[in-house]
Design goal:
Elements: E1 3-8, H1 15-26, E2 29-34, E3 45-48, H2 68-78, E4 83-86, H3 88-96, E5 102-104, E6 112-120, E7 136-143, E8 147-149, H4 152-160, E9 164-168, E10 180-184, E11 190-193, H5 211-225
Parallel strand pairs: 1-2, 1-3, 3-4, 4-11
Antiparallel strand pairs: 5-8, 6-7, 6-9, 9-10, 10-11
Bound molecules: glutamine.
């Protein structure tokens, strides 16, 4: 069984959604991991939740970047293991430098939430192998700083390496460059996604399109350990 770690920072609020998504819907093992943790060697996957870590002071994710667990997450990522960050987790990954670019205030300067159509731009990753290429899916969004920005050179690299994994479809809710909703690092084992797949696990709650993302990680792990 794959073992998922869900990092809990002071101010995280999506940690329980992630834990239950993995345990109850995907049916794999999941545990909370303290922001003070230094050793992540018992885990196969690390998940960084949404929320308001350290009250979003300075900038979203700017303080979480310096928490002890992020040194361990860097080590974990350097071993090629899957790291997934949603929303505040994505912000923490850019602040830490594990992903390129930054997340700025939404152009509306308002906190936005709702259901958002997305397009799967690359299904050849350990996070998207269950999706069809160009599949249109619906995931919830809930953020104040989701406006992805990077310089021209970085954008060129993201495109050349197929690191743009999800884009907003139909509408761009926050002003992100090239409608970017989710990217990976160059190696493809760290992903940041502004929308919340862990809140789209059951049709009863409006969408189950998030399931395939976590199932993709499990598929990948089965393949590498087979
Ligand atoms: N849902 C979230 O993770 C929100 C992240 C961050 N607090 C923001 O408003 O952008």
């Amino acid at each position: 069984m794959a073992k998922f770690g869900v990092v809990v920072f002071p101010g995280s609020n999506g940690d329980q959604d992630l834990l239950l998504a993995i345990q109850d819907v995907i049916g794999e093992e999941a545990e909370y991991v303290s922001h003070r943790a230094a050793d992540l060697s018992e885990y196969d996957v690390m998940l960084l939740p949404g929320g308001f870590s350290y009250g979003d002071y300075l900038r979203c994710g700017a303080i979480a970047k310096s928490s002890p667990v992020m040194e361990a997450v860097k080590q974990f990522a350097s071993e090629g293991k899957p790291v997934f960050g949603t929303c505040n987790g994505f912000q923490i990954l850019t602040e830490t430098g594990l992903l390129p670019g930054v997340l700025l205030n939404n152009t509306s300067l308002k906190f936005i939430c709702g259901m958002q159509p997305l397009k799967v731009q690359n299904n050849q990753t350990m996070f998207t192998n269950e999706y069809e290429q160009d599949e249109i899916i619906t995931l919830p969004i809930a953020h104040g700083e989701g406006n992805y920005y990077c310089d021209e050179e970085t954008l060129k690299e993201l495109k050349e390496n197929n690191q743009i994994i999800f884009t907003y479809d139909q509408t761009n809710p926050n002003g992100s460059v090239e409608d970017i909703a989710g990217i990976t690092n160059k190696e493809g084992n760290v992903i940041g996604l502004m929308p919340h797949p862990e809140r789209a696990m059951e049709d009863l709650l409006g969408s189950s399109d998030g399931k395939k993302l976590f199932q993709s990680i499990v598929n990948h792990l089965r393949k590498v350990t087979a």
